[in-house]
Amino acid sequence: MSVVAAQNFTPDELRDMRAAGKILAELFQDLRGQVHAGVTGKDIDAWCAREITKRGAIATYKNPEVNFPGVICISINDAIVHAVPTDDSFQVGDVIGFDLVIEVNGMKADSAFTMIVDEEARGAKKLLLNTTEQSLYAGIDAIHGAVKTGDIAAAVETVLNKAKLGIIRDLVGHGIGRNMHEDPDIPNYGQRGSGMLVPVGNAIAIEPMATLGGWKVKQDSDGWTIRTRDGSLSAHFEHTVLITETGAEIITQL
Question: Using an 8 Å Cβ cutoff, are 170 and 209 in contact?
Fold first, then answer.
């Protein structure tokens, strides 16, 4: 059996990771009120940069090893993840995913959510957002102590398949802690009982990504933005969780 190496966080590291998760959850709560038609991605990026510093954290995407051209990924409509903030104004009805990693004393927390600009969710958009978020919590609920990555993946896939959504296959969740991306990869599709065993005490980021169309993707010339190849709308939700003896502690929620 393949077992992921134990991260063996110290009490101070756990304290700092939880602090980063709380700051991120509070920031995301406030961010929702900043998103309106006419606002640009760069406006939101600048707001996030100020707030991250004000709240005592560091924007991981701006670290030299990542060197992303912003502090937050802002993925609009057919953009799935890693989209660069631009000067383009948000439009009513845009489906926008926000993905942010911050750190406190080097310990990372990663989260994402998707929302609709100035419009109540209905129809296919509502199905896309609600189901993708539900699949995230299904993945978290699959954790009952040490867990196989396939158990999480299968739980996510089951929810997305029931709604006949496209499941992105080329992008995955991951371990997290001292580094933004650590072992193991956590796909959003798979079979129960398969994959690597993640021990109690480790931290992972579970992040379903789904579309109203197919699963194939393409990358923009900016070298960052990943889009659906068929132009279909997409959604992305993510939490950082600590695996406990009996389940999972979500550190990126209030």
Answer: no
Q: Cα separation of 236 and 187, whole Å?
A: 13
Task: State the amino acid at position 241 in one-letter form.
Answer: V
- Residue 40 is given by DSSP the state B
* CA–CA separation, 59 and 7 (whole Å): 22
Place of tokens 């040490």: 146
- 207-221 pLDDT, tens per residue? 999 999 999 999 999
Which distant-in-sequence residues (6+ apart) come within 8 Å of 117 by Cβ?
35, 36, 37, 90, 91, 92, 93, 94, 96
Cβ pair 213, 231 in contact under 8 A: yes
Q: Cα(109)–Cα(25) distance, rounded to whole angstroms? A: 10
Q: Indicate the pTM of the whole model.
A: 0.97
* pLDDT per position as a tens digit, 77-125: 999 999 999 999 999 999 999 999 999 999 999 999 999 999 999 999 9
Which residues, at least 6 apart from 136, have a Cβ–Cβ distance to it below 8 Å?
Answer: 156, 206, 207, 208, 237, 238, 239
> What pLDDT digit, counting tens, does each position of 129-175 carry?
999 999 999 999 999 999 999 999 999 999 999 999 999 999 999 99
Phi-psi label, residue 177: left if phi above 0, alpha if psi -120 to 50, beta otherwise: left
Give Cβ neighbours of residue 79 (< 8 Å, ≥ 6 apart).
Answer: 97, 225, 226, 227, 234
